[in-house]
Design a protein that fits this description.
By secondary structure, this protein is an alpha+beta fold. 25% of the residues lie in helices and 34% in strands. The protein is built from five helices and 13 strands. The strands form three sheets. A five-stranded antiparallel beta sheet has the order 1-10-7-2-3, with no helix packed on it. The protein is rod-shaped and about 115 Å long. 29% of the residues are buried.
């Protein structure tokens, strides 16, 4: 039911505009008993970007055969309960000054949009964009301009909506997997981590300056193990990842050989 308006003037080229739209030139003065504002020219259905035209048709002033626009549910702004909301733009033009007028749109005789507080100047076309919910299937759309006046103007167009206009069914998200408790002293995982930390301390001290190619990896792993030991807690997933890295290093034949070559000496761990 929101309304967005834009103004386009026809004063500069009235003969050309009338020829293009197939409309008569409006009189300079409003004739008594005639509508001061009329539905004018095309009704357009726009994509959600409010710029791309999906389809358009000339309005018909009365009943009978109506010009038709065919649209798809995929181009709707929203869909629910058998109705689809579309951006619809129509025009009106005045033969006299109009202040604070109200327009109403009906789909199959059901009120679907109200556009209010519309001011018009003589000979100036105004475009109104509104977002009515249309039925799935055929919609005989009636646009009533200056609806609360003694002489409203009525225009018709048929809009066929392909689709059921029901909200898409969204599968519920599965509940998140439970997070295991952190690894802390007293558990088997902690004991394995603590032993790895002791071995990494020894390796950092004893392999320093020995030219071992993966010495930097040992230092990095030792720092991570030390951080966990000092905190006396580590997330289970982090513990698993850290121990996988350590076990891979400990199984490296080059590391095994380097550790075996270390000769214990007094005062060294």
């Amino acid at each position: 039911m929101k309304t967005i308006s834009s103004i386009k003037t026809l004063r500069s080229r009235p003969l050309l505009a009338a020829a293009l739209l197939g409309l008569a030139i409006l009189p300079a003065a409003h004739a008594a008993g005639s509508p001061p504002a009329t539905v004018n020219a095309l009704v357009r259905v726009l994509k959600p970007d409010m710029a791309t035209v999906i389809g358009q048709a000339l309005v018909t002033p009365g009943g009978g055969a109506l010009a038709t626009v065919n649209v798809m549910q995929a181009d709707a702004i929203a869909a629910a309960n058998g109705r689809c909301a579309f951006n619809i733009r129509y025009d009106e033009v005045a033969s006299a000054v109009v202040k604070g007028s109200v327009n109403r749109l009906y789909a199959n005789d059901t009120l679907v949009a109200i556009n209010s507080a519309i001011d018009l100047q003589p000979g100036v076309q105004r475009s109104i964009t509104t977002q009515p919910y249309l039925y799935a299937g055929a919609n005989n759309l009636k646009i009533v301009v200056n609806a609360d006046s003694a002489t409203p103007s009525v225009g018709w167009v048929r809009i066929n909506v392909a689709g059921d206009c029901k909200a898409p069914v969204v599968a519920p998200k599965p509940p998140p997997a439970p997070v295991p408790p952190p690894v802390t002293p007293g558990s088997a995982a902690w004991n394995a981590l603590y032993n790895a930390w002791g071995t990494s301390n020894y390796a950092v001290a004893q392999l320093k300056g020995k030219g071992f190619g993966r010495y930097a990896d040992i230092v990095t792993l030792n720092a991570a193990l030390t951080k966990a030991v000092d905190a006396r807690s580590i997330a289970a997933a982090d513990c698993t990842a850290l121990m996988a890295k350590w076990n891979a290093l400990a199984a490296d034949p080059a590391f095994v050989a380097a550790m075996a070559a270390i000769v214990p000496a007094a005062g060294r761990r």
